[in-house]
Amino acid sequence: MPHIVWIGFSVIVVTLILLNFGAFRRKLRELRIQGAFIGELEHLATVTYKYARRIVILVVGSTLLLGGIVMIVLPGPAILVIPLGLSILAIEFAWARLWLRRVKKTIKKIQQKLYLKKQDPPVTPKELL
Q1: CB 87, CB 107: distance < 8 Å
Q2: What pTM was computed for the model?
């Protein structure tokens, strides 16, 4: 349980940092200060933002994905949570996009099989009598 609290706290802190990053960039644009140091600082801020965004996507998506996998055994909506986790991970990672496509194809195949099983066979005139 303490790990879940720690992960939630980490996600909140990183989200707050990302929200403050946008204000920081706007302020730098407003000032239009010339110089190599400011250019390097903007580049560093951009690179930091990209890595922080990737880390947040990784933490949130993998948490949902692992929670969905656990829900396969335990009671819970694993069918909904696993694709949700994969779709969040697919924002940033190509391997997750491939797995998401596989999951979608599998779901469509299952739906088709269930639909075919639910259809009643055609009624012949002999059965009506």
Answers
A1: no
A2: 0.57
